[in-house]
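# step 3/5: fold
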Amino acid sequence: MSANRLKTRERLSQVRYEIRGELSRRARELESQGRVLIKLNIGNPGAFGFRAPEHLQRAITGQIAQTDPYTHQQGLPAAREAIAAFHAARGTPDASPDRVFIGNGVSELIDLSLRALLNHGDEVLLPSPDYPLWSAATILNDGRPVYYRCRADDGFLPDPDEIEALVTPRTRAIVLINPNNPTGAVYPRALLERIVDIARRHGLLLLADEIYDGIVYGDEPGAVPFHPLAPLAGDVPCLSFGGLSKVHRACGWRVGWAVLSGDATASQDFHNAMDLLGALRLCANVPGQYAIEQALHGDDTIGVLCRPGGRLHATRQALVESCAASEHLRLVSPRGALYGFPGVVGQAADGFDDHAFALEMLEREDVLIVPGSGFNAPDRLHFRVTLLPEADVLRDVFQRIDRVLSRRAQAPAVRMAAVA
């Protein structure tokens, strides 16, 4: 007699995470067959030869004997003090250690914050395209994602009027990802101020995903500096997310934080809910917390990588030049973060399907990319690559991409000739 098949949660059928999904599983199968792949699907610095800065490593090893016990559910006091001081220095109102929550990466804190906030059917305004964890966490915490468009024609910046038009009595929060993953957009101050005003007038929580706050390419005309949201939000409740994984190249340490700012009375129940949920998981990874003070108040090690002559800057330039040289691609140049989000244009776009294209790149060209629809984009004409490989590697990748797109662009003419 066969065993009954275990049922899973129905809401999981609505959740997608293409970054580590079907294509990634197929990539592992190909690698097991001896294929050598260029994997551009994940912003994982350590996989591309980056290391966490030595002064952060020393901060952990010097305290390793102190890391055996659980710590407070919100994090080590000294680490929370360092985070609060960093936020106070950049203008976050009322930044204090007791309003800091340290988690096992920002991913865990996104889930905890939405679990603390949402009742069944509550709505969260999310960018489209978005980082898909935000959509997944909203759905799995019984909420409903409602998307505001960030179109390529607008530089992947949202329209505040459209955001406000989406607000309903069930709306609880507005999510901003700045600098943006997957598009690389960096939001101007005036745009952020308008979104803050929407949150103020409708009583919404601002959720500011700022994990890439130190990764900005600001050396060209029209470049936009990064503006943290909390100082602009003032007394509007705002939860700002940061961590060690990207700016400090320490993904595997799983250290993230969230800082609650704004009117403390208005957000007290939410604060208590976050504290309760943090207590239920006991505490975050302790060793990595000892690196936080040095990360935020020690030497800057990311700026040199983002400026001319730096590795990230060089790879970004390779992306810009490769897309400009292709008749099949259109790129909104990334202003920040670790990704490019090219769109397919012209004849190659005729009948284009981003997932089928990504699969072809994997099977025929040994390159793993992420289809744009995996980021809840409104069309199937984009794909995401990371800027972490060396510049020459990315140039080679885009030669392969252009080869595949050229075949696609020629296919209609071949079919027409065969019919004739």
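# step 4/5: annotate
The radius of gyration is 22 Å.
# step 5/5: archive (pending)
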